[in-house]
Amino acid sequence: MPRISPTLPRRSATLPTSKASQPTPPARASTLPSTVASKPAASAPAATESKPVKHPGAPEGSPAYSPWEKSTGEASNVRVSGGDNKLTPPPGAKQHLFIDKPGNPFQKDVFGGTVSGGLGSMRASTTSHHGGGVHHSSAQAELNGLHASYELRKVHAGRLGVTSGQLTAEANAFKASAQAGVSADTKSHAYTAALTAKAETGVGVAASASHDFNRHVGAYVKGEAKASATAFAEGVASVDPKTATALLSGQVGAAATAGAYGTAGGHAGRLHGSVTAGVVAGAAAQAGGKLGLENGFFKQSADLNAAAGVGTHVKTDVAVDLRHHLKPGIASGLRPSLATASGVASSAGVVEPEKSRVEKLFAKAFRK
Q: Where are the beta strands (DSSP E) in 45-112?
């Protein structure tokens, strides 16, 4: 959980994307066995995302170079973290749905791209499992207001290589989730009870463009902007005699922020590099505390933190690919399935790039 202070100390942060927020397990969860580990039982609908460009000629399943996973700076302090679901049902758990309304999803092709979204959705369920010494009971609910996204992808294959571009925009009027439940492992004598709630709203837009001269040389740029407001509350009780832990903890937080980021980079042979810069402005406040026995130590703490102003992100990235050269080359065309997975703007009708006169000359000279 990132800490917020008026001086905004330097720390690492994850660049904001339009996908659903991922939970950060609290320190107390590390004392519990894997069957009681804190993970979200359900998440809000995944948002459209502009992903790092990966060379379209790369084999399927190959690791992708991702230049903007993390950055260093102070922008993380003008945000809050928490309120995500803490209990994960064990395998084979039974789920009972009380409400399951998809919210009339829609999709339409307009202005050369695709607009999709929903007019609101609601889902409420209970989950239970009893067997193998593991007992789990929880109730969770999700509520999504009007949400919409627009996606535009273009690609051009010419004699100098392949140029691709992508534009995405998303708006969420309201999104909320909550969970309450208990999880117990009687074999390990580990028990957890949790209550969480989270609500957020926001808009975002992202654009990226790339050009691959061939499978060895390419460049890309990406820009992203996002504004959001978030509020959360959570409480957790943990008991694990094997690690001498019996702890009560809770926290609340709220933030309103707006940020913008830019990344430029490329690859030449096995060398990849990028430069990322960004800024986040807004206000955030977070309060929490805990009381009890943790790993054999009696602990009592209370935290109240607030931050307001502007935070920055700056990052440079250099990587060297030590694998064998990727095949096939870009002249083999773009595979739509890989292009979609890598965020490269492509379609099923992509053709091979036009060969230059020099390429045609070499092709004739070395034709078998």
A: 71-73, 94-101, 106-110
Q: Residue length, the chain?
A: 368
Backbone angles phi, psi at 12, to 5 degrees: -80, 155
**What sign for the dihedral angle of Cα 348, 353, 354, 360?**
negative
- Using a cut of 0.70, tell me whether the model's pTM lies above it: no
Amino acid identity of residue 322, one-letter, is L
Is-contact 264 93, C-beta < 8 A? no
Per-residue pLDDT of the chain (368 residues; tens, 9 = 90+): 444 444 444 333 333 333 333 333 333 333 333 333 333 333 333 444 444 444 444 445 555 666 555 544 567 677 788 899 989 898 889 999 999 988 788 899 888 899 998 888 899 999 999 988 899 999 999 999 989 999 999 998 888 888 999 999 999 999 999 999 999 998 888 999 999 999 999 999 999 999 988 878 889 899 999 999 999 999 999 998 888 889 999 999 999 999 898 989 888 888 888 888 888 899 989 999 999 988 888 888 888 888 888 888 788 888 887 765 544 444 444 333 334 333 444 333 444 445 556 556 656 765 65
Indicate left, alpha or beta for 76 from its phi (over 0: left) and psi (-120 to 50: alpha): alpha
Q: Which residue has the tokens 């679901």?
A: 85
